[in-house]
Specification:
Elements (H helix, E strand, L loop, with lengths): L2 H26 L1 H38 L6 H28 L4 E2 L6 E2 L21
Antiparallel strand pairs: 1-2
The chain binds zinc ion.
The site of zinc ion has 8 residues, from loops.
Length: 136
């Protein structure tokens, strides 16, 4: 067998193993890992948002170049638009994941203050805290 082919097959096998193990680990540490996961996702999201800003700034420059009569920028405009819309989708997906992972914050029914989970009374106005649903 060709050496490179063998190498790539070994790598693929290892990748699959790693994925399996990753799935198991994810299941086990799901709860405790949620917070860390959210931090990671938020970090990734801000990275993508920066990238998107760069893209949009680049788009502005290229569009202005076109206005000034530079030819051959349509392809670049198209590339930037494609990449920006991809980024937008990714950011949306990340946002959704973050929302799923983050514990729901409770809001006081009286004064609308954010309440820490587990409290029975609002620490601002003393009203009874709403019941946490989904957990008991
Ligand atoms: Zn309150």
């Amino acid at each position: 067998m060709d050496f490179l082919q063998k190498m790539s097959e070994t790598a693929r096998g290892l990748q699959e193993k790693a994925r399996e193990l990753g799935d198991i680990a994810k299941e086990v540490t799901r709860k405790s890992g949620d917070l860390l996961e959210v931090t990671k996702l938020k970090y990734e999201m801000s990275r993508l948002e920066k990238e998107m800003e760069n893209n949009l700034a680049g788009l502005g420059t290229v569009v202005y170049q076109k206005f000034r009569g530079a030819g051959d920028v349509d392809e670049e405009i198209d590339r930037l638009c494609q990449s920006t819309s991809r980024l937008e989708e990714e950011i949306k997906a990340l946002d959704l994941q973050i929302q799923k992972l983050q514990p729901k914050t409770l809001t006081c029914t009286q004064c609308k203050a954010d309440l820490p989970p587990g409290g029975k009374y609002c620490s601002f106005c003393g009203a009874a805290a709403p019941a946490e649903d989904g957990e008991s």
